[in-house]
Amino acid sequence: MVGCEGGLNAQIFLQKGCQNMNDFKELPKSVKKTIRYLQQDADLEQLMKIEKMLVKTIKMQKDKLSKTL
Predict the structure, then answer these.
(1) pLDDT at 4
(2) Contacts of 7 (CB under 8 A, 6+ apart)
(3) Are 14 and 22 contacting, i.e. CB atoms less than 8 angstroms apart?
């Protein structure tokens, strides 16, 4: 299996629906660590809490950015 930055397995990354490894390599280090945490250590309750926070934050940022256009 091919490895990549941060120890995240490339095959797992691609199986999760990501486009390619270059997209992953361009992400900030904190996002890579978060993805690795979600895949390896988070339990179901943590996943649900994190998902709600991320969805809410992404929506707010999208709304904010779309208003500035």
Answers:
(1) 45
(2) 36
(3) no
